[in-house]
Amino acid sequence: MTKRIQHIHTQTRTPAGIQERQDALVREEPLEIRIAHGSGERRRHFSVAVTMRTPGEDEDLAMGFLFTEGIVMDHSQVLAFKWLAENTILVEIVPHIPVDEERLKRHLFTSSSCGVCGKAALENVQTVNCYYPSANFPVVTPEIVYGLPETLRQAQKTFDTTGGLHAAGLFTAEGRLSILREDVGRHNAVDKVIGAALRNACPLPFRDQMILVSGRAGFELVQKAAMAGIPVLAAVGAPSSLALELAVESGMTLIGFLRGEQFNIYTGGERIRSA
Asked: Which of 167, 189, 215, 259 is the most exposed place for a label (fewest CB within 10 A)?
């Protein structure tokens, strides 16, 4: 946890005056994700993305990113993770996997706030979907959905110290938290969750799972969930119009404004019903 946190001196100002104290900030550092692809003399390194992230679980992040961007299809296509420098990770891909370098050039930079930026063309935004959820499955009760944010919040250890991290959690239909990841970027947290599931050899697709994000539900979060076949995405905040369009197209259930015993169902309401 110490790698994720930077302790600093700060001043707190109140009507009573100034108080000197120590504070904890979440670290934000760039991570360059490179891949090695091809075979024999034609094998080469290629930089896929530079993402601003919270250090920790970087192998999960790289795995999840490569999967949700359609570069690899599962964990068996990754041979190894190698550190070339402190913030540069190389993912060795099996030789026979084709890589379209021109398509990947759109990943000039991914920020912690908005995800992938600098895309070359709008039509390249939507990654080819790998899996589609099963219709009307799973069925989740409203009571289980109500409890997801508190379960996620109780498991956020770094947030307790810094108050500056997003979280994503993979849940069973019964509301059990399977995997939690925290990051300064909500899209990174989702990639880390999916990457961790893949590296733990969880069988694809994740059609019996739900994912909760501690913020708004943007297009890229829905896209990443859809790539893994996750049928239900819930967010504490609002979805975007493009996120809703993709959720409808992918057959997903999209939930927003999940707070207390209340939430909005934007699409896929057939999965949310009382026992």
From this structure: 259
Q: Provide the CATH number for the domain around residue 110.
A: 3.10.20.10
**pLDDT tens digits for 183-237?**
999 999 999 999 999 999 999 999 999 999 998 999 999 999 999 999 999 999 9
Q: Which of 114, 117, 130, 202 is catalytic?
A: 114
**Is residue 190 included in any domain, yes or no?**
yes
CA–CA dist 146, 169 (Å, integer): 14
* Higher local confidence (pLDDT), 116 or 169: 169
148 and 266: one domain?
Answer: yes
pLDDT in tens, 78-132: 999 999 999 999 999 999 988 887 777 655 555 555 555 544 434 445 556 668 7
* Residue 202 bears catalytic tag: no
Q: Phi/psi zone of residue 219: left (φ > 0), alpha (ψ -120 to 50 degrees), beta?
A: alpha
CA–CA gap between residue 265 and residue 195 (Å, rounded): 27
Neighbours of 122 (CB within 10 A): 7
Q: Which domain holds residue 169?
A: 142-271
